[in-house]
Amino acid sequence: MEVLVYGAGALGSLVGGLLARAHDVTLVGRDPHMRRVREEGLRIDGRIDACVRPRALTVGRDLSADLALVTTKAYDTDAAARALATGEYGAVCSLQNGLTEERLVAALEPPVLAGTASYGARLLEPGRVRCTGVGEVVVGSLEGRESALAERVSRAFTDAGIEAAAAGDMPRRRYEKLAVNAGINGPSALARVTNGETLEGPAGGVARGAAREVARVAKAEGADLSESAAVDALERVARDTAANRSSMCEDVAAGRRTEVDAIYGVVLERAARLEVPVPTCRTLASVIRAWEAGRELRRN
Ligand code: KPL
Questions:
Q1: pLDDT computed for residue 103 by the predictor
Q2: Could you give the 3-state DSSP secondary structure of residue 295?
Q3: How far apart are CA 110 and CA 93, in angstroms?
Q4: What is the ipTM of this complex?
Q5: Residues sharing a CB contact under 8 Å with residue 172, sequence separation 6 or more, in sequence order
Q6: Cβ–Cβ under 8 Å, residues 104 and 92
Q7: Nearest-atom index, ligand 1, CA of 188
Q8: Domain with CATH 1.10.1040.10 in the chain
Q9: Cα–Cα distance between 79 and 91 in angstroms, integer?
Q10: Average of per-residue pLDDT across 293-299
Q11: Main role (predicted)?
């Protein structure tokens, strides 16, 4: 299968590299990472060892593939969609944080699938990605229907040795992932602690509170996610990735823009529309946005 992986950050590089063991993969990312992959291949180490040679590009326009995976930061979704709209794809599947799929649907003709990936990944240097946790990829239709296309996409992952499944309950899973991100990312970034430590002490109360609020929004929107299921998912992911730092914690440590809008912004928007109080998510959003504004990483 021809697979385009749009966004060669840590997760995109890992998933693209693993897929390249069985498929014809093109990675789209930035130099110097892409240059090194072109010249020397992509080294995967940590929990999985591999060296693969995917195609590595810095411009993702006018391409075609059976499957386009979108793995950019959530705030780059519109730019990714504009580039993908110039090409031809059998299907598009997001493995991003936040509820980005609606934006892809609005901009693209091919069918868009929702996906989650629970692999841990860290870019060590150009051309080298570490697998810090082996997880699974789950894909499915946005509406929560059984989907033959999702089955085919999930088989493409399993053919490359990635544990994967097609699921008919993506609306619930997307909110579950959002609850996990809301619980871990903000508190871990503000306290500068690992995912495991996020559950301890006062940060743990904030983390669980944020996850519960996302479950209330999910319920109000008709997705079947209880507060206890959201907290269970948060605790499971924090335990399974205990030694890792969340992407937001890494972003703050590196002085980079975060995914605050894609994670907390989307919760606040939907909560306002559905009249659900979300004070913990609102506070986390305000503090992280203030941090970004203070570093001129955002204007509002
Ligand atoms: O998705 C993640 C992130 O870091 O953005 C979690 C689930 C928190 C894993 O680290």
A1: 96
A2: coil
A3: 10
A4: 0.96
A5: 144, 218, 223, 224, 225
A6: yes
A7: 8
A8: 170-294
A9: 18
A10: 92
A11: Catalyzes the NADPH-dependent reduction of ketopantoate into pantoic acid. Catalyzes the NAD(P)H-dependent reduction of ketopantoate into pantoic acid.
Tokens 């697998």 correspond to 131
Q: Residue 32 Cα, ligand 1 centroid: separation in angstroms?
A: 25
Q: How far is CA 203 from the centre of its chain?
A: 23
**Domain made up of 2-166: CATH architecture:** 3-Layer(aba) Sandwich (3.40)
> Ligand 1: which atom is nearest the Cα of residue 259?
5
Q: How far is the CA of 119 from the centre of ligand 1 (A)?
A: 9
Q: Which amino acid is at 294?
A: G
Q: What is the pLDDT of residue 299?
A: 76
- The structural architecture, per CATH, of the domain 170-294 is Orthogonal Bundle (1.10)
Catalytic residue among 33, 177, 208, 289: 177
Q: What is the pLDDT of residues 157-167, one digit of tens each?
A: 999 999 999 99
Q: What is the DSSP string of 34-87?
A: HHHHHHH-EEEEETS-EEE--EEES---S-EEEEEEE-S-GGGHHHHHHHHTTS
- 95 Cα: distance to centroid of ligand 1 (angstroms): 12
pLDDT of res. 69: 98
Q: Is the pLDDT of residue 300 over 90?
A: no
Is residue 199 lining ligand 1, measured as CB closer than 6 Å? no
The backbone torsions φ and ψ at residue 203, rounded to the nearest 5 degrees and listed phi first, read -60, -35
Q: What is the pTM of this model?
A: 0.96
pLDDT at 119: 93
- List pLDDT tens digits, range 192-231: 999 999 999 999 999 999 999 999 999 999 999 999 999 9
Alpha helices in the chain (DSSP H): 10-19, 33-40, 77-84, 101-107, 148-159, 170-191, 201-220, 227-240, 247-253, 260, 266-274, 279-294
- The boundaries of every CATH 3.40.50.720 domain in the chain are 2-166
For the stretch 103-151, pLDDT in tens is: 999 999 999 999 999 999 999 999 999 999 999 999 999 999 999 999 9
